[in-house]
Amino acid sequence: MSLSILSPGLLTTVQDLGRIGYQKEGIIVSGAMDALALRVANLLVGNEEKTAGLELTLLGPKIRFEADHLIALTGAGLAPTINGQPVRMSRPIFVRAGGVLQFAPQGTGCRVYMAVAGGIGVPEVLGSSSTYLRAGMGGWQGRALLTGDVLPCPGPTEITREFWQTIASASSAKAWAQATWTPSPELYPALQTSPIIRAVRGPEYDLFSAPSQDAFWRQEFTVTLASDRMGYRLRGAGAALALAQPQEMLSCAVPFGTVQVPADGNPIILLADHQTTGGYPRIAQAITADFSPLAQVPPGGKIRFQEVSLAEAQRLFCQQELHIRQLRQVLRLKNV
Amino acid sequence: MQNQSGGQIQRPQPHMYPLGDSGIVLHFSDVFDAPTQQAIRACCACLDQLNVPGLLEYVPAYTTLTIYYNPWLISQEGRCDPYERMTEIMEQMLAQAQTPAAESAPTVVEIPVCYGGQFGPDLEEVARNAGLSAADVIRLHGHGEYVVAMVGFAPGFPYLAGLNEQLAAPRKAQPRPRVPAGSVGIAGRQTGIYSISSPGGWQLIGRTPRRIFRPEHTIPSLLRAGDQVRFVSVSAAEFEQQNEHES
């Protein structure tokens, strides 16, 4: 079973939930930018949440299915079609061999995830199938997909086969069929065009001047075109952010969501391909529960930050996990 | 610095602060020195032994140790306050790190280096900058005792502390678009080894034939925070004999 890449799109990579445990050796985490979307896509086809899928960016690829497949598409910003007919996001879709999936840009957001029942057959490197573009390792040959690539797929596991049969039985002779249901919207809320990203104060927040602290929470930032999977370079409408007293810092660990401020005063928010350590003062840290809307802001998009407490950030983290668990339970009921 | 008293080792005690909703930082000191580095090393050894669901990974740096966790799992699915639970786990780990059992001899790694020539295009510049001869630079760099302060910047890239102050040199005004893997460089008061070929602005004084980053190994990085490093000067012929790099 395999997928043929007829055209690659802007940046289509194999990603899972990241390479965990090697940051102490300077190896970045990588993984899906919108991890929640990938987890949901995997659950919809009966995969484990951490199974590798495809991350599609801004311009989708064109993919031909060389055998019957069960897939799910999540995330935002692209409208999918199979053999020219629109299909829905966020539900299992059964595609017969020969079906061609492609995308047109649509609405808010910039990343779509495709899960394939049984996963994608790429070898794990250091415990993960995620593509680490700069080091050329992991994923599909350490790089983004190109025209002519043929990705092997191991095919459905025992659990995914149950999902498969439920949907496939409805397809009869059609080229594809999709489930009539979708997960509850609170799990993956509709995206706003200029989202408010909630954040807690960063370790160096108190070192920033009072006007800079105030400006950080008040102003709107533009995600500049010099933004990628490593981080978004932000530019505010007002004055650049500055420390009350200039000072040098010793490098320290930095995670996904860190808002660091280099000397030029324009913040950078770190994302999935962030470096493991950094030496810039950290004014804020986006909360995990808002990583989805953050990951979906396209270049040129706008964001604002809103301060929340650590307790609130962790409550929202746990709430999201609870919703994921509920989805897992509901899906199990649907397919037994 | 280490006074034995009642079976305990007096190490610097860190203060702790959160790094977002999924991280906690142990901040040991404002300056990088041997006691700080030993305290971080002891904690890493203890963390390697801990098996707590939701504890994801740790990242040692100069004066800090950051631990990442999953708040949902660490709080047993929201049954307690995740950050409070993490501080408790860290307190227990720190107590463990005070015992002599956490003491272990640091790993010493010898790194062969071919200094100067095509491998060290900036050797003369570093020498001029220091008012020394190229031979002096090689002698002073090669006789240093170094410790890996941190691994970062690129996979497996070691930041080495312990450079002779006379050899301190500013970064290149124009970074090179491609520095070959194994290049040994100086930036400010640090020395380091390029683990993969990448752009870079360090002053290059030599190259090691050894591979510093080996993704096919279970422990891909040859050097880890806290390891001690000695450089051994080798000839160009010895470099070729020992060369582990591709092409």
Automatic annotation (TrEMBL), chain A:
Asked if the Swiss-Prot or TrEMBL record annotates the protein with the keyword Lyase, the reply is yes
What SMART domains has UniProt attached to this entry?
AHS2
Q: Which GO terms describe its molecular function?
A: ATP binding; hydrolase activity; lyase activity
SUPFAM superfamilies the UniProt entry points to? Cyclophilin-like
**Which parts of the sequence belong to the Carboxyltransferase domain?**
24-323
Q: Which of UniProt's keywords are assigned here?
A: ATP-binding, Hydrolase, Lyase, Nucleotide-binding
Reading the lineage from the top rank, the first entry is Bacteria
Q: What Gene3D superfamilies does the entry give? A: Cyclophilin-like (2.40.100.10)
Q: Name one Pfam family in it.
A: CT_A_B
What is the protein name given in its UniProt record? Urea amidolyase related protein
| Source organism per UniProt | Hymenobacter roseosalivarius DSM 11622
